[in-house]
Design a protein that fits this description.
Blueprint (H helix, E strand, L loop, with lengths): L1 H30 L7 H21 L2 E2 L7 E2 L3 H7 L2 H32 L6 H8 L7 H11 L6 H4 L1 H4 L8 H29 L3 H9 L4 H12 L1 H16 L3 H6 L11 H11 L3 H26 L13
Antiparallel strand pairs: 1-2
Helix pairs in contact: 2-15, 3-15, 4-9, 4-12, 12-15, 14-15
């Protein structure tokens, strides 16, 4: 009797499992967004990113002054750009400013972000004041610092003992220093905000275990905080690299590429070629080179860092 009941119940149990799995799969299908959700973003991306990029790529093989019909010239624009010494110099200046941005902003952002993630007294007020540059546009920031550093009535004119003749924009070294400083002042809060959020997500149990083992704050920072911020550091660096390669407003307002061509970076040189010299073909070449360079460098950073594999930094934490 018992055997018969068991055999009769067995198919019912199996059917229940199958129906449960089916219900789970059905609920998963219902909860997963369909392709239709991505259609608006895809259309927007194609219209305002892919199509303009293709148009710029086509324009790079044409001669056009802004009026009339473009004329096909083949590789002439590319040859002129690569033979232009100002263009070669602008590439090195762009790389220099990008490297300076990463070197200066990364340690400052990490330290400020980790500090802002704590529970110090008046931390919220100080952080709010420090994050004010995030509310300003690059144009507003550049105009502000152009006035503050003006050699005639700005801070340098009142502190000649520190700034010499006060003309920080008259020499390449000081002009590049001003550009790096202004970019650091403006964008460090953004990256600090990234590190602040990442630092708050670190489980406190790691620090508690480190304290039990006798590790001090400095040791905890280098052996717990920094490793846990690894993915955030990579993301921040990619943003810095792309931002450094496409910087334009700061140079336009602060130095205008001067003195001479000593601060003429690639993005500003593109502007000069296209909208001052009306050589839109050469400007398109430079624009395309910037897009390709930013993409390649970002992919290299992602590939070498292993960030593309999205390895967790919280393995073993439950």
């Amino acid at each position: 009797m018992t055997t018969q009941l068991t055999r009769a119940a067995a198919p019912v149990k199996s059917s229940g499992r199958k129906s449960g799995r089916a219900r789970g799969a059905q609920s998963a299908d219902v909860g997963r967004p369909g392709f239709a959700w991505a259609v608006p973003a895809t259309i927007f991306f194609v219209l305002f990113a892919i199509l303009p990029l293709l148009a710029v790529a086509a324009l790079s093989f044409m001669s056009w002054g802004g009026i009339g019909d473009p004329e096909w010239v083949g590789l002439d624009n590319w040859n002129r750009v690569f033979d232009d010494p100002v263009m070669i110099k602008s590439i090195w200046l762009t790389l220099l400013l990008t490297v300076l941005g990463v070197v200066l902003q990364t340690p400052l952002s990490i330290l400020i972000g980790v500090w802002a993630a704590g529970t110090q007294r008046n931390r919220a007020v100080i952080s709010a004041v420090y994050f004010v540059p995030l509310l300003l546009s690059s144009t507003a920031v550049s105009v502000l610092w152009r006035a503050l550093l003006d050699p005639n009535f700005g801070i340098p004119s009142e502190a000649t003992w520190l700034f010499g003749d006060g003309n920080l924009f008259g020499k390449q070294t000081t002009a590049i220093g001003v550009l790096a400083f202004v970019s650091t002042w403006q964008f460090t809060p953004l990256h600090s905000l990234i590190y602040q959020g990442a630092a708050r997500a670190i489980p406190q149990v790691l620090y508690q275990a480190a304290e039990i083992d006798g590790a001090g704050r400095v040791r905890q920072f280098f052996h717990i905080t920094l490793p846990q911020l690894r993915n955030s550091i990579i993301t921040s660096m990619i943003l810095m690299v792309v931002g450094g390669l496409t910087t334009f407003e700061t140079v336009l307002i602060l130095t205008q590429g001067g003195p001479g061509t000593d601060t003429t970076i690639s993005a500003y040189y593109m502007y000069q070629k296209a909208f001052k010299s009306f050589d839109f073909g050469a400007g398109a070449v430079i624009a395309l080179l910037l897009v390709v360079a930013a993409t390649i460098i970002s992919l290299i950073v992602v590939r070498l860092s292993g960030y593309d594999k999205m390895r967790s930094t919280m393995e073993g934490v439950s």
